[in-house]
Hints:
The protein is mostly helical. It is built from eleven helices and no strands. The protein starts with a helix and ends with a helix.
Amino acid sequence: MxxxxxxxxxxxxxxxxxxxxxxxxxxxxxxxxxxxxxLATLVGxxxxxxxxxxxxxxxxxxxxxxxxLMSVPTVIIGLSVYFIIxxxxxxxxxxxxxTPWAMVLGQAILAFPIVASLSLSxxxxxxxxxxxxxxxxxxxxxxxxxxxxxxGRFAILSAIIAAFGRVFGEVGASMMLGGxxxxxxxxxxxxxxxxxxxxEFVLAIALGMILLSxxxxxxxxxxxxxxxx
Length: 229
């Protein structure tokens, strides 16, 4: 038990002293997760909005597919993207494998169904009279769309935060696509796995504390926006 307490104490010292290696790993995690969440939002939000306001053949099946994709294991996403960007893959010539951009791509695919599904639920839950009111006041379709998004902004922000929380702590796709290269693609989850395997628990505990702090902050923000909704 003593070595565990000593490890926590050393980890706290590392956090307080702003250890350079720890900060580098944390920065890579934040940068990759932020970029992937932004990319997923740019694609997932319009997708969820369109499905939410339109009635078309296959809509229910498409919603079921998005809901299913929310629970797909990260290693499946990593494997699928790996086959696409590896040397023999269709995008192999771009040299994306084992780069931060490969991690961004994998995490964006992971976050996309979360943003799309939760945005879809937010739009569906809105009163349909919102759109009719906007159109009756002279708004065009684009202005009405912005009005609807404004009404559901808290639920949509909650969806984006949930997507960020999902990708920030994932390890499977990051390990497969990024290669866990020190100072380049090593993020918090992959570094924790590596340091634990090596028996170096101090850095792993420090990074675990940061990961839990971010997860707690994400949950607090998501709960706040859910309450505002």
